[in-house]
């Protein structure tokens, strides 16, 4: 059956064209007459190689919309790389085949790339299809049919102050400054590398919106332990220099950690001091407290320890009775 109605009452047209399935979902309110007319147009286009199938542009044309869109993103070069990675799978395919193309991307890339990287490529395709839909190039947003992989990339390593001190003692002066700034502010590596003297106030440190992941300005109080390390701002090393310096320090300290673990450690130490999640959210610059809730289990752990002590006391008292 080439024309059918889904559970939402939307009409669909699906036929085989040169060995490939061409599928259209008609807009709301479309009639069976509209569906039959669209089917006829598709069949007509199928026998005329020089004529494009109506409302079904080639996927490379759609992806080109994303490449233009990437110019306005925070990291245009990285965004373009994710889009270009999908190129060989998009070649010779049309927008209506986006879900099948996405499935093929996942199948071929899995095992070679992390789920997060695959998802960036799928995300570029989804955005491109959304742009095409908004520009009326396609009758429905095929990007909505693409599902990302579960990333499960959560990695929780929490350092004690003693471990951070051991790590910092093994680091070069510039890397040591970055380590303590990260722990005492919760800042990300990129935010620290972009710090400039004008960002340092008398009592607060200002992270400009353009330097943050969420593109929101963040203000962090300057505590006494932080101030000596701010004298090293701006750091005299770049991203690669900090990465290699941190790697040498962690190897010398015998710790299996990465720089971002300092941000996690800032949060975990604050929780141990009884700081509410809402306050930690503001310090770390999370958009919502939901993101900060990844550390909620630490609060539960503290509560469990406290109740365990109470339980031991109760049990000891019961034995004496």
Strand content: 5-15%
Specify the CATH architecture of the largest domain.
Orthogonal Bundle
Q: Strands across the major sheet, in which order? A: 1-2-3
What is the N-to-C order of secondary-structure elements (H for helix, E for strand)?
EEEHHHHHHHHHEEHHHHHH
Q: What is the alpha-carbon Rg in Å?
A: 27 Å
Write up this protein.
The protein has 321 residues and is mainly α. The protein has two domains: 87 residues; 141 residues, Orthogonal Bundle (hpI Integrase, Chain A). Helix content is 52%, strand content 7%. The protein has 15 helices and five strands. A hairpin with a 5-residue loop joins β1 and β2. α2 packs across α6 and α3 packs across α6. The radius of gyration is 27 Å and the shape is elongated. The termini are far apart.
Tags for this model:
three-stranded antiparallel beta sheet, single chain, two-stranded antiparallel ribbon, 321 residues, mainly alpha, 2 domains, hpI Integrase, Chain A
Brief write-up:
It contains 15 helices and 5 strands. By secondary structure, the chain is mostly helical. The protein folds into 2 domains: 59-145; 161-301, hpI Integrase, Chain A (Orthogonal Bundle).
Topology diagram in text:
Blueprint: E1 3-5, E2 11-17, E3 20-25, H1 32-46, H2 59-70, H3 76-85, H4 87-90, H5 98-109, H6 115-134, H7 161-169, H8 173-185, H9 189-193, E4 204-207, E5 218-221, H10 227-230, H11 239-253, H12 261-272, H13 277-284, H14 289-292, H15 296-320
Antiparallel strand pairs: 1-2, 2-3, 4-5
Helix pairs in contact: 2-3, 2-6, 3-6, 7-8, 7-11, 8-12
